[in-house]
Design brief:
The chain is α+β, with helices and mostly antiparallel strands and 502 residues long. The protein is 36% helix and 25% strand.
Length: 502
């Protein structure tokens, strides 16, 4: 069918459905009643009766009440087979005129694929062995005015899937499974942190000063207070204020907003978990992170071994730990002069296709070398630790080498999964770091950290030695569901306008 005829065909189908709906209403059928109540999920029936013989099923006269969307219909005059689908699964039902009555069957024949129906019936098994509900009563619960796509699995326009996620969820079981798995991941994560003494808290999403990360924020305005506010880029500085206040283990599952590019790994609105632990350091967090990931994988997948885009990944504790500069040598193949001498490092970064702005510090250039030469090769879990101080404005300096920080990032499948460090709690050092960030911002670095006087005041009251970590939830879900793009694991990812002219 040509693209020119497609809109006409769609219009005709919509018109036919509206005409059917009008006939149903004329005959006294409500299109959107709200009195039906189900008592059974389809998955429960499948789990409990899939191994029963036809004889066992037919001798059981229990009547089950289900509700679901019509996905498939095959009619034989006086009888019809249908598949209905609820949140838990899909089941075949069998509707016969002689059972439900001629008038009810006449009404039923006006139902369409996509309608939501309520049914009552008993179970039996067809000649082909399929578990089926023999319908005693059927009623329309919701009229669908739009047809479901017939060949949805073959659509090449993935943007249409994301834009109309409600349709994607109806017709693509794999998509529903991803988000059901996401829920189990979040439950496992919270259970782990709760069991280990962390308290879940909530902090502001609109902040007068954005902090806790180096990123460009979204800006908004509060009319009543007549002040500029920022959507948070991270909850870190508020969570550490709670350490000052006396809470020793806190976490927040948080939505963050960063005004940056969109890719298979980046969405401007994303989910993280951040947790802070008083009287601990970054090495304690390495141990906790290994244990946390292994437990979540075991609970959700049944194993610490998984396949991601054809690569076998082992999340069993005992991950490799390598220093930042050690990784540039061991994995990146560089000599110390390649990354320690500014001119050579900058020239090499540009040769690798990295754009180095004028005046960018050595630490950021080294990070560009890492991104190009090391990160893509970190397939199995790797902790990369001791990052340069000038790219770690909130991290505690290493006591043996103040040019480095006690910080690590976790990489799996060539992408960052977590960022953690021993926290900087000296307000004097923190002020100097903030001032350096402000200077960089004045020179044009939009992602540099703001000065936050209230946070400095909090540190002056005294924050205990602590360690903190942020884990990207979306990327964790990508890993555990074998999803290649972050858009696959976000229900409603950000997209360009459907009709830009409007």
């Amino acid at each position: 069918m040509s693209s020119k005829k497609q809109p006409t065909s769609q219009s005709q189908v919509l018109k036919q459905r509206q005409e059917k709906a009008a006939l149903l209403e004329t005959s006294g059928v409500s299109l959107f009643p709200n009195g039906f109540r189900k008592d059974t999920d389809i998955a429960w029936l499948i789990e409990n009766f899939s191994d029963k013989s036809d004889e066992e099923l037919t001798t059981d006269e229990t009547v089950y009440t289900l509700a679901g969307r019509v996905i498939f219909v095959r009619s034989f005059g006086k009888a019809s087979f249908m598949h209905i689908q609820d949140q838990s699964g899909r089941l075949q039902i069998f509707v016969q005129r002689d059972v439900i009555g001629p008038e009810a069957y006449k009404t039923f024949k006006k139902f369409d694929i996509g309608d939501i129906v309520g049914v009552r019936g008993t179970l039996f098994r067809t000649r082909t062995g399929e578990l089926t509900l023999n319908v005693l009563e059927i009623s329309l619960l919701t009229k669908s005015f739009r047809p479901l796509p017939e060949k949805y699995h073959g659509l090449k326009d993935v943007e249409a899937r994301y834009r109309q996620r409600y349709v994607d969820l109806i017709v693509t079981p794999r998509v529903r499974e991803i988000f059901q798995t996401r829920t189990r991941i979040m439950r496992s994560l919270r259970n782990y942190l709760d069991r280990n003494g962390f308290m879940e808290v909530e902090t502001p999403m609109m902040q007068p000063i954005p902090g806790g990360a180096t990123a460009k924020p979204f800006v908004t305005h509060h009319n009543a207070l007549d002040m500029q506010l920022y959507l948070r880029i991270a909850p870190e500085l508020y969570l550490k204020r709670l350490l000052v206040g006396g809470f020793e283990k806190v976490y927040e599952v948080n939505r963050n907003f960063r005004n940056e590019g969109i890719s298979t790994q980046h969405n401007p609105e994303f989910t993280m978990v951040e947790f802070y632990w008083a009287y601990a350091d970054y090495i304690d967090l390495m141990d906790l992170t290994e244990d946390l990931f292994a437990e979540i994988a075991s609970e959700v997948l049944g194993s610490t071994r998984l396949s991601y885009q054809g690569q076998e990944i082992d999340l069993s504790p005992g991950w490799k730990r390598l220093s930042f500069f050690g990784s540039l040598q061991e994995i990146g193949g560089l000599s110390p002069d390649d990354y320690q001498v500014y001119g050579q490092a900058k020239q090499l970064a540009e040769k690798l296709g990295e754009s180095v702005p004028p005046g960018e510090g050595l630490g950021k250039v080294q990070a560009r070398l890492f991104d190009a030469l090391v990160e893509p090769k970190l397939i199995q879990p790797h902790f990369i630790y001791h990052y340069p101080t000038d790219i770690s404005p909130l991290s505690r300096k290493n006591p043996d080498n103040p040019e480095l920080t006690d910080r690590f990032e976790l990489f799996i499948c060539g992408r960052e999964m977590a960022n953690a460090f021993s926290e900087l709690n000296d307000p004097r050092d923190q002020r100097v770091r903030f001032e350096e960030q402000v200077e960089a911002k004045d020179k044009g670095d939009e992602e540099s950290h703001f000065m936050d006087e209230d946070y400095l005041r909090a540190l002056e009251y005294g924050m205990p030695p602590a360690a903190g970590e942020g884990i990207g939830i979306d990327r964790l879900v990508m890993l555990l569901t074998d999803s290649p793009s972050i858009r696959e694991v976000i229900l409603f990812p950000h997209l360009k306008p459907e009709n830009p002219a409007e």
